[in-house]
Amino acid sequence: MASPILSPGAVPEPAPVAPQEEAWQENLNTQVMCRECKEIPPNIVEEFSNGDMVCGSCGLVLGDRIVDTRSEWRTFSNDDQGNDDPSRVGDGANPLLNGSQLQTSISFGDGGSGRSRDLHRTQNKSTHDKSTQGLLAAYKQIGAYCDVYQISKVACDTAKQYYKQVDDAKAFKGKTQDAIIAGCLFIACRQNNVPRTFREIYALTKVSKKEIGRSFKALEKFFATSNTMGPVNTGDLRIAYPSDGYAATTSTKAQELCSRYSSQLGLGHQIAMISGALADKVAELGALAGRSPLSVAAACIFMASYLMKNPRTAKEISNIAGVSDGTIRTAYKVLYGARDKLVDPDSIKDGKGDMKLLPVVQ
């Protein structure tokens, strides 16, 4: 195409340029708005605890699974008794263990080359702590014992804390670990009102009753004279501490055993309550003075089961209580003679129980 002929002084027009497509850019003026309120500016609240984006005016959920972009670093200086500032991410410190408790573990998943195994062995040698390993082994043993007898977590954690205090003080070096564990477990059960007898602890730990008694007396004296039994930062542990330090335990009472034995015999709550009331009355009158709490509890359960129309034989009760059926019958003979003083008329009224159902003792 030939260019046009211009007159003198004329300026040629520029050739038209084809429009070019602009590159995409994010529109930063776009806002999230509540479709119900339509407020400007929008009142949007991010709830990181639930991962939701919520309208602050009407409560409508505008988005879910919101990622918390804030820093995870927190300061626990107010909760730490050492007055230091352990700013870190992770779980709180376990008061039952010593040291920083922050370490790296190396796995064996290297495809069978053996390098991870060598690194794991080297790392274990460098971070091996015999005291911590001994505590962990003792805690595992205490936990296994508590699982067998279904002892509560409170009593289990208390026994672990007692063992740690003995280990920190380096006391009772002449005693075996099993004897100390048996003594701590016996005291912890008493402290938490779930007592176990020497016979039950012996059956559980295989430590002789004489050795359990010696450990119990030595530990009682140690805890009573020690000032380390005050409150500690237990974290997730459930440990029952008295406000004025360690309180010496008292001997197991028969009424404390009635509830557990009744449950193991499949008796109801009402019979457990009545047998406990009978044991209290027996202790008040001194009807079975000098007899063991096991015999008193077994005789009270035997009497309450017949009284409330759900009888259990002396043989069945002896298998649970650990006393002979002859001992139960002998103790029951005393209770039968004082039945008018022991049985509360209100507990058997309206046909709930009947005194005539009690077996006659010759």
Kindly state the mean pLDDT as a whole number?
81
The main pleated sheet reads as:
3 strands, antiparallel
Task: Enumerate the spans where pLDDT stays under 50 for 5 or more consecutive residues.
Answer: 228-234
Helix residue percentage = 40-55%
The total count of strands amounts to: 3
Short summary of the structure?
With 362 residues, the chain is mostly helical.
Structure description:
A hairpin with a 4-residue loop joins strand 1 (44-47) and strand 2. 44% of the residues lie in helices and 3% in strands. The chain starts with 43 loop residues before the first strand and ends in a 20-residue tail after the last helix. 24% of the residues are buried. The longest helix has 20 residues, at 130-149. Helix 2 runs antiparallel to helix 3, helix 4 crosses helix 6 and helix 9 packs antiparallel against helix 10. The protein is mostly helical and 362 residues long. The chain has helices at residues 115-127, 130-149, 153-169, 177-191, 198-205, 209-225, 254-264, 269-285, 293-307, 314-321, 325-337, 339-342; strands spanning 44-47, 52-55, 61-64. The model is unreliable at 228-234 (pLDDT under 50). Strands 1-2-3 form a three-stranded antiparallel beta sheet, with no helix packed on it.
